[in-house]
Amino acid sequence: MNSSLTWKDLLSQEKKKYFFDAINYINKERLTKIIYPSSKDIFKAFLLTSFDEIKVVIVGQDPYFSNNQAHGLAFSVPKNKNIPPSLRNIYKELNSDFKKKYIFNHGCLENWAKQGVFLLNSILTVESGKPRSHNNIGWEIFTNKVIFYISKYKKSVVFLLWGNNAQKKYNLIDTNKHYILKSSHPSPLSAHRGFLGCKHFSKTNKILVECKKKEINWFDI
């Protein structure tokens, strides 16, 4: 394991046709359509969580598709936006897990990212009003490689795989050196099938302490 690796070192290996095709497709689409997030935010997760600092990986699906909610972090929205239903359930589980009644005033998870929680969507862009519209343009090739690199070059990372889409990433992760916690997706349609009550946040912190890493302050948002 090389702890001095950076995102630039790793992702320079993905300067391939599929990646440039995806970027070119997005740039062309922006000429006539509304695409989220903005160009400057597509890779925000990589900017806020350095490769060296990753302790936890949360895998999302594709970005929020309405009204400038998406800003490059899975499940997160800018501070001036309403908290989406899935994130409300995440907050609900957090309070339940830690037996708190904390009132979350916004849905921006940038402080999680700065603590080492890598908030990675499988698909990095979406057309306004059309969920999963960029499923097949190459993003998953890229994000699967990102997960593979984290698994290969890091150790003792906690992967939170919520829902079927995230759990498809299981085989990319070396379970001999990392930890995987699985549950249903936190959306209102499926949260009751296992996400609510999963206690993933306290379990993650317990693992981090056992690995002599600093806990995540989940209420620091």
Automatic annotation (TrEMBL):
The keyword Cytoplasm applies. It catalyses: Hydrolyzes single-stranded DNA or mismatched double-stranded DNA and polynucleotides, releasing free uracil. One of its GO terms (biological process) is base-excision repair, AP site formation via deaminated base removal. It comes from the Bacteria. Excises uracil residues from the DNA which can arise as a result of misincorporation of dUMP residues by DNA polymerase or due to deamination of cytosine. It holds the Pfam family UDG. HAMAP family: UDG. This is Uracil-DNA glycosylase. One of its GO terms (molecular function) is uracil DNA N-glycosylase activity. InterPro entries: UDG_fam1, Ura-DNA_Glyclase_AS, Uracil-DNA_glycosylase-like, Uracil-DNA_glycosylase-like_sf. It comes from Buchnera aphidicola (Aphis fabae). Its EC number is 3.2.2.27. It is found in: Cytoplasm. Keywords: Cytoplasm, DNA damage, DNA repair, Glycosidase, Hydrolase. NCBIfam families: PRK05254.1-1, PRK05254.1-2, PRK05254.1-4, PRK05254.1-5, ung. The keyword ATP-binding does not apply. One of its GO terms (cellular component) is cytoplasm. It is an enzyme of class 3 (hydrolase). The active site is at residue 62. Residues 47-208 form the Uracil-DNA glycosylase-like domain. Its main location: cytoplasm. Belongs to the uracil-DNA glycosylase (UDG) superfamily. UNG family.
